[in-house]
């Protein structure tokens, strides 16, 4: 009986150890920097509390963008539609706007993301803000490659710029 119990303990330890180890794939995706957008914003306004949360809208009024393979202007007329949770700890965003490259090509962007505030394991405040832009570029343009990849972005804040700065990477 004692041998059986020890054998079961050894087997349980082996199974637990084996299940806790995960082989990380060797083909982990890489990121390639695509562009930085400097987005100017209009006066934010709110629809108010809705059944889904507090709906806020921030007009996108313009700006510029630049990266290794493209640059140009952000067109007026878009908006960032945000839905804030009742406690304010989480906001879902969907920004819809267009950019125009220096050579005159219009590209549509739909950028969905999350802003979340919480506390880390030590009780310190933590802030998470990431989004995933999707691009729609003309298929016959030099920017058609934007249609066929996934992208991620995160903001950087600059006291010298009145708006939001978004850095965008392509997942390779």
The helix content is 10-25%
**SS element count, helices:** 1
Order of helices and strands: HEEEEEEEEEE
Largest sheet: 10 strands, antiparallel
Radius of gyration: 23 Å
Structure report:
By secondary structure, the chain is mainly beta. It contains 1 helix and 10 strands, in the order αββββββββββ. The protein has one helix spanning 2-20; strands at residues 31-41, 45-50, 53-66, 71-74, 78-84, 90-101, 106-119, 125-136, 150-156, 164-171. Strands 1, 2, 3, 4, 5, 6, 7, 8, 9 and 10 form a 10-stranded antiparallel β-sheet that branches. The protein starts with a helix and ends with a strand. The model is unreliable at 4-12 (pLDDT under 50).
Q: What is the compact description of this entry?
A:
The chain is mainly beta. It has one helix and ten strands; from the N terminus they run H-E-E-E-E-E-E-E-E-E-E. Strands 1, 2, 3, 4, 5, 6, 7, 8, 9 and 10 form a ten-stranded antiparallel sheet that branches.
Features:
1 helix, mainly beta, 172 residues, ten-stranded antiparallel sheet
